[in-house]
Structures are given as C-alpha cells and as structure tokens.
Amino acid sequence: MRVFKMSIVALALVLASACSSGSSKTNAPITKASYLAKANAICTTMNNRVKAFGNPGNDPKQLATLIDRSAAIIRQTLARLRALPVPPGEGAKVAAVYATVDTVLADTPAYTAALRGTSHQAATVAGRKLQAEQNAANAASITYGLTVCGK
Known about the structure:
151 residues; elongated
C-alpha cells in the first residue's frame, strides 16, 4: 500500500511547477527575479489550497479523489503561470518546466483510475510512473528557480 501514500502535496507542488499569473503594466520586459517572485507567490497559494484538503488516510478511493481535486487546482495554477509574461530569452526554459508538469497532469488520471480499481499491481505501476514524473517536474522547477512550486 506504500504507493497509495504518494504525497498529495508533492503531487500538487510538482504539478504546480507551472504556476502564477499577472501581466506587466509597462512595456519594460519582466526580469527573471520578478517572474520567479510572482510565480512562487502563486504557487504558495496553490500549495495552501491543496494542503487544506488534509490527509485522505489509507483509503485508495479517497486518495484518488484528493489527487483529482489537487490536479484541478494545479491545472488552474498552470494556466495562470502560462499567462505570466516570461522574461526575455527564458521562453524555452519555462516551456520545458511546463512540459514536465503537463506530463504529470496527463498521467494522473491513469493513477487515480487504478486506485479506484481492484488491481493493486496496476495502481503500483501507475503510481511509480507518476512518482518518477513528479520527481522530474520538481527537479526542473527547482533548477529554474520555482522553488515553492517544486518543493
């Protein structure tokens, strides 16, 4: 049952590697420091929303529901980050971080479906795959400077 205890907060943080919003009110390009401050602030809000769900215990179906709810928040956060102006020359790096989060979000339904199913093996396999993707997204976020998003 160890796979069932996958950290919801970690999933949220990973999926949140792409989080923030805002728009520049001037024509001056946004700096990387400003971008990171805005993005990490939005990720703080996302993390707090996900943490408020609490612990689902050892029930796989409750865990699946919690993960689905967390993923919805992360999708919203990712959209907000994508709306944030990217510092000049940083587009490819930011897009690479977003791509890692997109992968996690794309594979989350397979894991939650497996948790709701009867095959412990399917849940274990899907959970391991998702955990590896989550670790990669966290690492990409932190490396870029989205430290709150990739905790």
